[in-house]
Structure formats: C-alpha cells, structure tokens
Amino acid sequence: MYLPAREFSASGYRSLQRVAYPVSRLDVFVGANGVGKSNLYRALELLQGAAANTLGRDLAQESLDLALWAGRRTRGPRTIRLAIGLSAPNRLETTFRYEVEVGLPPPVSPTLGREPQIKSESLTYFAGSRKICLLDRQGPSVTARNDEGRPVAIDLDILGSETVLGRLDDPSRYPELDAVRRTLLAWRFYHDLRTDADSALRRPCVPVAAPTLTSDGSNLAAVFATLAHIREDTTDLDAVIDTAFPGAQLVIPKPERMADFGMVFPEFPQRVFEAAELSDGTLRFLSLAGALMAYRLPPFIALNEPESSLHPDLMTALARMIVRASERTQIWLVTHSERLANAVRETGAGAVRTVLKADGATAIEGLTLLGSFREDD
Questions:
Q1: What is the reported pTM?
Q2: Least crowded by CB within 10 Å, which of 74, 174, 209, 367?
C-alpha cells in the first residue's frame, strides 16, 4: 500500500531558498512567469530521483552549479536539501520523513568532475511525540535501526552520487524504507506530453492492459482500450469529451495487433479522425483525460502547465477533471492560467496558492517558514 504525502520541503535549490509546504489532496500553484512554480514541481521530481537512484545524475544534467541557490546565504557549504513527509494509511499526520542533502564534491575526491555528492540522508519514524531514526547516512557511512531497535553500521558499497534509498533494496529487513521508495517510484509527473508530429500520443501502441498512463503518454491508446474493453465503462470519459467538444465522440476500437483511437466530430459524422490527424489542443486534452481518468491512478500526480495548447474555453472541463481525479489520488498542479486556477477554486475543492518572488526567492502567499498558513489565509 502506498503512503500519502503530508509535507514537502526544499532549500538551496534554484529559487527555493527555503520552502516548507503542507501537502493536501489537491494543491494548485498559480503565478507569473519566473516566480519559481516549476522549481516546486522539479524538486518533487528530484525526490523521486532519490528513490530511483538517479538523483546525482539528474542534478548533473541540470549542472549542480546552476541548480544551487545563488542568492544571499549564511556561512557554510552550498547544498540542496529535499524532504518529503508521508503518512501511514488512515493517519493524517506525518509518519515517515525522508530527507536528502546534496552538494558539490570536496576538492580532492574520487569523483567525475563536479559530480553531485550525497552529503546526508535520513529516514525518521514519528511515533506520537517520539522521533525514531530508522536510517542515517553521513557521506559513505550508513547506519540503520536493527530488529532490537539499535543503530548498526551497514556494509554497503555506495558511491558518493548514489542514494541509500535507491540502493538498499531489502524489503524484509527494511520494510519502512521499501514502502517509502515504492511510493515515490509510483508517482507520475506529466509535463512532457508532446503533441508534435513525432509525438508518441499520435501513434498506435501495443495492446497490453494499461491501468495508468505513462509519463510520456505513449500508452494512451491502451489506457482508453482498458477502460472500454476491460473495465467496459467509459461513461465518465464520454461525458468529459462531450463537455469539452460538444457533439464529438471518442472512438476506441477493440485492439487486435495494435491499440488506437480516433474522434468523430459532429461536422463530419461519417469520418473518424485518427490520433495523427487531431489538433494539438484536442490531443493534449485527450492525454490529460487519460492521465486523470485511467482505470487506476497513481498515488500522486503532478501536472506542470497542463493548459499548454488548450483553448481557454477548455479550462472549466479540465478543472472538473482534475477535481474529480483528486477524489482518487493526490494532485499537485502548477499553472500559469488564472482561468484554470479560478475554475478549480469555484468548485470549492483543494487549495489554490499564489506563488510570488521576494528578493530572488520563491514564496507562497501566506505560507510561514514553519510550513503552515497564517490564519487570515
């Protein structure tokens, strides 16, 4: 079973000098260009990278020198700290907190260039007012709590750019660490749903049951086929399509050698337009429908500017789809569109937050440094 997210914090990453945020079922972040909304999204992706053991590589691809906070700072080394608080099922408060700190390598070290180095990692269990350290890593030294509740050193061959979370894959000995890792790996980030001529969305895919849309949307046809021919229920999907494109119909043939789909529009009732023929906006909306209405949703969905390529009139339909999906999972939405944010706000669901920038640092209106909102907000 996956663990719901309860809190998130980041410091030292790009414009995120210091942010602590209480995660809810539906969190919407809206603001002007350049205030750092995408950095909030990206920081969550990096936490998944820690679970996949790609955090060092991911930051190297960004160039760690550029990813580090460049503004005014206190004395000490420049590092990036990321943390996520997760709760056990049926609990509202944080049960497990995973934290990782990344920085530049020391002047003399066995690294490749300025390869990012994991400085520290920890996994903490909260038992009421008690805090129990389940895992602690300081550089190459790793200790974990044993069956008797005592910290013991672990002999783990780990490189400086590797995470213990991604390397220590022994569910029987470290079940809590395994639960955190599996939860983070199951998250989905949807920002690269391309709609150009070479997009995977425009091509048929292999006919294998697909309960969840992949991050690039390459199995969209199989997601629709799963709803139509395995679940045998497209009522909600059909209703969303009709709201967004009045009179249009999504056509989902039963797959044989490949799975595909098309659209019939009221202006051409005898003609099925294949995915390759659809407009960017239509295909974009369909891919979001696949992400948010799939047979089985991931435990956490992050959407980065889903309104791209969509006509403004589609914002209400998109907002309703997002709100409906938040009844089944947690959603983190980053958007430039005030219209989309207002459409979500009008439903009364979730929290719509305004992202600002002050002295070069990203801030969320009303959010205190302790990770709570002022009463008047």
A1: 0.94
A2: 74
Beta strands across the sheet bearing 262-264: 249-251, 262-264, 273-274
- For residue 73, pLDDT over 90 is answered with no
Pairing of β 141-145 and β 151-153: antiparallel
The closest alpha carbon to 167, from 37, 63, 269, 53, belongs to 53
Q: What is the pLDDT of residues 110-126, one digit of tens each?
A: 566 678 999 999 999 99
Mean pLDDT, range 164-180, rounded to an integer: 91
Structure tokens, 122:
């920890």
Q: What angle do CA 62, 63, 68 make, to 5 degrees?
A: 95
CB 39 within 8 A of CB 13: yes
Cα–Cα distances (Å) from 84 to 20, 27, 94, 102, 243, in that order, read: 10, 15, 9, 15, 37
| CA angle, 287 then 291 then 292, to 5° | 115
Give the residue carrying structure tokens 């209400």: 316
Q: What angle do CA 123, 128, 133 make, to 5 degrees?
A: 25
Dihedral (CA of 220, 5, 359, 80) sign: negative
Structure tokens at 185: 């790996």
Report which of 229, 227, 247, 375 is spatially closest to residue 292, judged by C-alpha positions.
227
Q: Looking at residue 287, what is its pLDDT?
A: 97
Token output for 114: 């300025």
Distances (CA, A) of 89 to 169, 179, 298, 332: 22, 12, 15, 20
Number of helices (H), then strands (E), belonging to the chain: the values are: 10, 17
**pLDDT recorded at residue 356:** 95
